[in-house]
Design goal:
This protein is α+β, with helices and mostly antiparallel strands. The protein contains 13 helices and 24 strands. It folds into 2 domains: 301 residues, no CATH class; 109 residues, no CATH class. Pfam families: DUF1015.
């Protein structure tokens, strides 16, 4: 066991001590969706508040981002901290128990997603764009988004994870072997999620044998030989951010601040804020679907936008008859770095002749940024869904831009070669498919 713990530690993983509700009959109201979802739909969160009224719930322990701009955020933060303390002291939680948790997430629209709840070492994480750390951001971190989140976490007694961290495991060696053994694992929860979001099951993994198996699988995935063979690079890494990039960056910021303030502490490097609770997920899981995030440019001349792209010599424009024709090309040929478009006058394809980056989102975002710098009255928004992008693009003075989804087998390689993806490059499913808060861990 000691050897397994040492192996895991070198790879940035720790067996967590997890808190779960003592009463199973509250789980459907206990678990709520990640706080960064439905951020423009306050009515969703109002319905959640109504559904969970007078019941212990993680809604009382997190800060939905739709409320970040409210007049007195300190009041909500104080309430969150007070609720955390009260839940711990009043017996809402059972005693903390050491072990990983195998998670099965079912949704109405996708295959089952299996994950592993673990603690990840923030010493092994660097969210800077030129990071060479074992754990890396996959999209650019917006530094301005961190301070408000630090205020929420800095005095919190508990953390609850909505962070999903990806591993590149095509052989399915880490998580998937446990799927066949759920009958021999202790079930810790099994319930329907609120608001029609699917079903969640969890199984504790705590035996020496199973922890040794996890350590062995991660040691192989993280070995220099494996990563060199897989990526042909000395800049390889083991863990990639999937969801919750700014939440992990917030945890990292707090840890770095704590180190500065407690530099002489003999127990500094064992303080619980050194780690963050996350769900590890295999990028090759059938339950993980990368969806493109499209763009709509507003208050522009579509003809001018397309003309500037063409006269730059970097792009070729080809008109098409229909949206179906555009999407067939965009979806089937991401390696060609094409971007479909829709305007009030029709459809077409923009093909990059000299890509700036190894993915279409990077190349076309660079051109969009350049265009906006020259046309300050124009603006861009990031759109989920082809139909919505088309609807916006076909309005006068707009252009909709359709980007291809990222291929799973190039995801890690692209981050190694180019660094973090441009902002709003990919999405891992719809809002209701995101992680729900269930587990907690003490960080004070």
């Amino acid at each position: 066991m000691k050897n397994s713990i040492e192996i895991l530690g070198k790879l940035g993983i720790k067996v967590p001590e997890i808190l779960l509700p003592a009463e199973q009959n509250i789980m459907d109201k206990w678990a709520v969706i990640a706080c960064d979802q439905y951020s423009s739909q306050q009515d969703y969160w109002e319905k959640v508040a109504e559904f969970t009224e007078d019941t212990p719930t993680t809604l009382n322990l997190v800060y939905p981002e739709c409320y970040l701009e409210e007049d007195n955020p300190e009041k909500r933060i104080e309430s969150i901290n007070r609720n955390m303390h009260d839940y711990v002291e009043s017996g809402v939680f059972s005693e903390p128990e050491e072990g990983f948790i195998l998670v099965k997430r079912d949704t109405p629209v996708s295959a089952s997603r299996w994950g592993l709840i673990a603690s990840i070492d923030l010493e092994q994480y660097d969210f800077s764009s030129d990071s060479t750390s074992l754990v890396r951001a996959t999209e650019g971190t917006i530094i301005e988004r961190i301070p408000p989140r630090v205020k929420i976490r800095e005095n919190a007694e508990l953390e609850l994870p909505h962070i999903m961290v990806l591993i590149d495991d095509p052989e399915m060696s880490l998580i998937e072997p446990f799927i066949e053994e759920t009958d021999n694992l202790d079930s810790v929860y099994d319930f329907e999620l609120m608001m029609g979001s699917g079903h969640l099951s969890g199984y504790r993994i705590k035996s020496d044998k199973h922890i040794a198996r996890i350590a062995e699988a991660l040691a192989i995935l993280g070995s220099t030989e494996t990563m060199k063979a897989k990526y042909n690079s000395d800049n390889a890494f083991l863990f990639a951010m999937g969801d919750g990039n700014h939440s992990l960056a917030t945890a990292k910021t707090i840890w770095e601040n704590y180190k500065k303030e407690n530099v002489d502490s003999a127990e500094l490097m064992t303080h619980p804020s050194r780690w963050a609770l996350v769900e590890l997920v295999n990028i090759y899981s059938e339950g993980i679907q990368f969806e493109a995030i499209h763009r709509a440019v507003f208050n522009c001349s579509p003809a001018d936008f397309l003309n500037k792209a063409e006269v730059s010599g970097k792009f070729r424009i080809t008109e098409k008859e229909s949206l179906d024709e555009v999407m067939k090309i965009t979806d089937s040929s991401p390696e060609l770095q094409t971007c479909g478009y829709s305007t009030a006058n029709g459809y077409g394809i923009i093909e990059s002749l000299s890509p700036d980056t190894s993915i279409a989102a990077g190349t076309f975002q660079n051109f969009i940024d350049e265009y906006l710098s020259e046309n300050p009255a124009s603006s861009v928004d990031y759109i989920h869904g082809v139909d919505v992008t088309d609807e916006l693009g076909r309005k006068p003075s707009n252009i909709g831009l359709f980007l291809p989804a990222i291929a799973k087998n190039t995801f890690f390689q692209t981050v190694i070669d180019d660094g973090a993806f441009p902002r709003k490059t990919f999405s891992m499913g719809e809002a209701f498919e995101k992680r729900f808060y269930v587990e907690a861990r003490k960080i004070k």
